[in-house]
Structure formats: structure tokens, C-alpha cells
Specification:
two-stranded antiparallel ribbon; 2 strands
Length: 252
């Protein structure tokens, strides 16, 4: 099956490739991609072929593209792939983001938010995609279905960031998430959401994890709200110092 898909992908038009992909169940296609990726056999070429035969201009093609994209993210996160294979798939996913319509970008971003809040990240490698998805969504001119209504791409991005910052973050990905946000264009209110969330996470980290987080927060604060970030960092260390002094007095 994979050889037939690759062969048809080499043709000038994608008509026969689309016909073949439409005849295959999405789950079977996703499993085929997973098997090839785990074996390290031409996974990038197969993924490229599936995207070529799944145009977003058709509903079936767009839904197939979304299903394969989400499975590819899970593969990158799984840790089951060779480093080179994971990097190739991630690179392809980055390029393909721009071909998605706004409605599917919302679904992709929402899936990421759920994965982060539910603690389902395995290695955090796929987080490289989230800034591109949010940035591309914000640039969409048309209104997009969100919840029970419609919002602009920019408003969708704001709602998603608000939801992400009000949910749970796994301790081991706080530094990565803080670093990720520096690559997303943010309004002043969104910068405040992120700054407040990161400052709340300080008390949940081990002491040795604090310096890299301070660094990432200071880099992020170049987007704005630097005074609040600095005050929060100083308050945290003052509390830590006070706690240490109390413990010392108790020992004496």
C-alpha cells in the first residue's frame, strides 16, 4: 500500500492519489504511517504523499489531513522514532501548518491545549509546532467557528492562550512552555496571562530549576510587563529567604 501511495504521489496530478486515499480508512492510513515511521522507512515521503492527496479544499481531504497531522504529533512525542525520522516529520508538520483553514487550526491548537493541561506530553518536542499554529491562526482574516459562536483568528488565539494559562502545567515543561511563548506574537493582555502563570509556577519547581526559568521569563518579558516579572521574581526570592531564616532560627 505504501509503495502504491508513493508511486501515485510522483505523478503530475494528484487525482489518482486522492481516489486511492479516499478508499482507505483514516485509521488504517494513520497506522500505516506509524508502522513506517517506527521502522524508519521513508516515513517523510509517505507523510508528504498523504498531505499531497488530502487537499484542504475538500472536506474529506481536510479531515484526513487533520487526523494524520494529529497522529504525526503523537509519533513525535512518543519517543519511539529515531531522532532523524522525528526531525523530518516535525519539519514537514511545520511547513504544512500554513495550508490549514482557520477551523482546523483551532482544532489543532485545542488538541495541544488539552494535551498540556492533561499532562499527556511525553518529551515536549512537538511544542515547537504550537507557536507556528497560533501565529498562523492569528493571521487568518476570516472569522472562525469557536465554541458556540464565531471569532476572528486573533480572538481565537487569545481564548486559547487564556485557556492554556488557566490550566495545569506539568512541572517538567514549564521552562519549555515559557520559552515557546516568546515566539508567539502577543497582545499586552496575553503577555500578562503568561507572566502571571509562570510566576505562579515558581513555587512548584525545585530550587535548581529556578535559574533557567528566571532567564526564560526575563527573555519573555521583552514583550512587555517586565516590571511585573521582576517584582514577582524578587517576591519569590524574598519569601524563600524568609523561609530559610525561619528554618535556621528553628534549628538554633
Amino acid at each position: 500500500m505504501d509503495q502504491k501511495i508513493l508511486s501515485l504521489a510522483g505523478e503530475k496530478t494528484a487525482d489518482k492519489l486522492q481516489e486511492l486515499l479516499q478508499a482507505v480508512k483514516e485509521d488504517d492510513l494513520a497506522n500505516l504511517l506509524q508502522n513506517q515511521a517506527v521502522k524508519g522507512k521513508a516515513a517523510g515521503a509517505l507523510l508528504r504523499a498523504i498531505f499531497k492527496g488530502s487537499p484542504c479544499s475538500e472536506e474529506a481531504g481536510a479531515l484526513r489531513r487533520l487526523k494524520i497531522y494529529v497522529r504525526s504529533i503523537q509519533l513525535v512525542e512518543s519517543g519511539d522514532l529515531q531522532k532523524e525520522v522525528a526531525s523530518e516529520i516535525l519539519g514537514l508538520l511545520m511547513v504544512e501548518v500554513h495550508n490549514f483553514p482557520g477551523s482546523l487550526l483551532v482544532e489543532l491548537a485545542s488538541e495541544f491545549v488539552s494535551v498540556i493541561k492533561e499532562g499527556r506530553l511525553k518529551n515536549g518536542k512537538s511544542l515547537e509546532l504550537l507557536p507556528i499554529i497560533l501565529t498562523t491562526l492569528a493571521a487568518k482574516k476570516e472569522n472562525v467557528a469557536y465554541g458556540k459562536g464565531e471569532l476572528s483568528g486573533e480572538e481565537c488565539k487569545k481564548q486559547l492562550i487564556n485557556t492554556l494559562c488557566s490550566g495545569r502545567w506539568d512541572r517538567q515543561y514549564v521552562i519549555q512552555l515559557t520559552s515557546m511563548f516568546k515566539d508567539v506574537p502577543l497582545a499586552a493582555e496575553e503577555v500578562e496571562f503568561v507572566t502571571e502563570k509562570v510566576l505562579r509556577m515558581f513555587s512548584k519547581l525545585n530550587l535548581q530549576e529556578i535559574p533557567p526559568l528566571v532567564y526564560q521569563l526575563l527573555v519573555f518579558s521583552s514583550k512587555g510587563n517586565r516590571k511585573k516579572a521582576l517584582e514577582g521574581i524578587i517576591t519569590f526570592f524574598n519569601e524563600l529567604d524568609k523561609q530559610h531564616n525561619e528554618e535556621q532560627s528553628g534549628d538554633e
